[in-house]
Amino acid sequence: MYRIVSWVLALVCGAALVAACSRDSTGPTGPNGGDGGDGTARDVVTRRIGAGGGSIELSSGTRVVFPAGAVDDEVGFTVRDVYPDAYLEPDPALGRVVIECTGAVTEFARPVEILVPLPQEMTEADTAFVFGGYIDAETGTRAMLPCSIRMIGGAPYGVLALDHFSTGFLEWTFGRRPPGRAGPLEIPYYGQGPSDYCWAASLQMLTQAVNADISHAVTDFIGALGVDAGGITAFTFRTSAAIASIVRSRTGATPDRSSWDFVNYDQVRNYLKREIGIRGVPVALLSTVWEHVVVVVGYDGNTFLIHDPQSTDTHAIGYTRRSWEELRPGAGMVCVSIPRPLDPERPTVTVNLMNDAIRFVQPTPARIFTFRWDEETGTGYSFQDRGDRVAALPGQVTTLSRSGDIEIVNSSRTAAQTVDVFLDVVCHAKAGARHHDYASITVPPNATRMFSFADIPVDEFRWNAASPGEYSLAVRARVGGALMDEAAILFKIAPRLVEITSMVPDRGPPGSMLTLRGSGFGAIPKFALVKFNGIVAEVDTSSWSDTVIRVLVPENVTTGPVTVTNGEVTQTAGLFTLTQEARFADTFRREGVLPVSHQSGQVGFAVEGSIQFSISGRVECVRKGLTIEGLPSYLISVERGASGTITVSGNATLDRHVFVDHFLASQVRYTFSPLGGVQILSHGHGSWDPSLPSVSLSVSANEVSFAFDGGDDSLDERQVYFDIGASGDMTVERFDDEGELLSTSSSPRSVTGGHIRIREFSMRRCPFTGENLMAKCHWGGEDLLPSP
């Protein structure tokens, strides 16, 4: 219930009349387009009245009677019988007279009476259904005064007493009295929720009853009036030009707005019965005692049925019974009705997007922006954080959630409704940037049910534009496929910056994995891209988050910047250096009886970067060995009798110095394309069985493989020769298992073709200690020779 500023209504009405009486004799301008002068007057009479009193009679039989002593001296007065349509909406069910009185004296010592002839069939018993007062010439609103019927010469006259002049009126029904029971009128229901805007919800009910339109919202009234949420005054509710303007724009009719003071409040009861029982329209009723506005939709005797926008009973939201004693005020009332027939297509199902219904959550720094009905904005709503409204939600918001009531209301008194409810959140600037939700809800008659939805990631519908983007949220209710009602709002979201704190690694080959950390990537990769020097990369969607991205380096890329783009906002992560991935697989097989227990196969290599081992079969050790030219080297020893595959891969570049200790293998095939393209050929020699095939190395792209068979070889040393397709000096170095240099031999070579055959080294085999297992050779020439 909202607070209405209390005041004695009669005093305010009097103030309004004083203002009206100060106008000049040309007459006021009627709110419905009449000029209040001769152009809209059916009759105009001017005469002078003195202290002895007198009367001014119009051709219609209406008289203005001045009692003796009303004025002290003789004064000229003009009385105009004005067409009622100049001020009030025409209604064939009502008889009306509007009288404009002007003169040099506007306040009287004794009341002046306006006597209006009524239909002959009316009697004094019909007094309860004659209404009169005066009209605010600017707004068309009416201050109601006590009226009566007086029989004069056997004819009925309506009597209105005035103590000062303004635009007076009387109205009555033609030979009809309201029935003892009428309604309830089945009209749409809208609630005020957790707010003080009962008056706006009530006006929404009135206008939707007359002309249902899904684009009309409670918040239209809130934004147009700019009335503080603490409460509308009875004066504003009656006289506001904004209320009249919205009602006219929605319905094409100027609302009837009347105020009643404590002297004649019982006339309100009869007025309500007339509006509902004869005119067939609901009435918004403001009670200064309740400090509340409700919509009266029916009556049974002196018990009235109301739509109370503050209803908390979800099983009986409308058609609440209230006795007249409960409604009757102690200070005053304001009634608002719309003189138009009810819309036969008015819906029974409505959507109420209540105050506090939804919110946006910003995790860092923690803030919550709640949807609020707001009189300080033209739309009548805003998003606020602890009372601070924002023109655009910050880009850091991540979640849209339901925080209050989204009501689906069925105002039918008898029929339950199955309602299909649709939620759509849409970005206006980007096709596909939207979120859709749906629920089917069964709503009993005269009841309300809540529509709920799971938390929605903002990045489902966000298009991260360079400037604040506009979005809409709409909740629509359909019954049998037909649209019943919609609650829709607009909002903006500011851009969100993309921030990158790390990129690991900053180099690697195609197909390798890169990890980016930061913020602003988006909760889902719907409108986000990662590019390597302009080429879009494939992201790991299963691990994507707003702060971490894992992405594969694309094929056919070159060294260049890595960028992350979210919508229209781009940030550079850094320079990524493309390298060639080092990968080789050793497939081995050893069969038969090996007389020497320590027989095994071994491979050693040097790498730059990180590597991973994948081993199928039995090995004796996988261990880091020597350091060759500052690069770590590794040694794999294969168990005797084992077979399987060794695969070494990762973000690494194998050094061109690759060594195979094959002296116990009867056959080795090892293929690798080293960095720089230098080709090495190796052959077994010395005490190997000449009948065994020679050991050779050959080159194929990015893969090194070898196979070996066990042999009956028990020698402790083996000599290995290399053919090197290069020119220049050759140096051979031998190391122990601690990486200490044991010996160096140099063989300067300068050839223009062919291959250099060098007796490389003699090495003692000890697979368990690793002694003297590695050696390396250097060649100084830059001219590479073709493969043999």
Please explain how this structure is put together.
This protein is mainly β and 788 residues long. The strands form 12 sheets. Strands 1, 4, 5, 7, 8, 11, 12, 13, 14, 15, 16, 17 and 18 form a 13-stranded mixed β-sheet that branches. Helix 2 (198-210) crosses helix 3. The protein is elongated. Mean pLDDT is 75; it is low at 1-29, 33-38, 581-613, 618-635, 637-642, 648-739 and 748-788.
Outline the fold blueprint.
Blueprint: H1 9-21, E1 41-49, E2 54-57, E3 63-66, E4 75-82, E5 94-103, E6 107-117, E7 130-135, E8 142-145, E9 147-152, E10 155-164, E11 167-173, E12 181-182, H2 198-210, H3 218-225, H4 234-239, H5 241-251, E13 256-261, H6 265-279, E14 283-287, E15 292-300, E16 303-307, E17 320-323, H7 324-327, E18 332-337, E19 349-353, E20 358-362, E21 367-373, E22 381-385, E23 388-390, E24 399-402, E25 406-410, E26 417-427, E27 434-443, E28 447-450, E29 456-457, E30 469-479, E31 482-493, E32 499-504, E33 507-508, E34 513-519, E35 528-532, E36 535-536, E37 538-539, E38 548-552, E39 560-566, E40 569-578, E41 584-589, E42 601-609, E43 612-616, E44 619-628, E45 631-638, E46 643-649, E47 652-661, E48 669-671, E49 680-684, E50 696-698, E51 717-724, E52 730-735, E53 741-747, E54 756-764, E55 774-779
Parallel strand pairs: 8-13, 33-40, 48-50
Antiparallel strand pairs: 1-4, 2-3, 3-6, 4-5, 5-11, 6-10, 7-8, 7-11, 9-10, 12-15, 13-18, 14-15, 14-18, 15-16, 16-17, 19-25, 20-21, 20-24, 21-22, 22-23, 24-29, 25-28, 26-27, 26-30, 30-31, 32-34, 34-38, 35-36, 35-39, 37-38, 39-40, 41-46, 42-45, 42-47, 43-46, 44-45, 49-51, 51-54, 52-53, 52-55
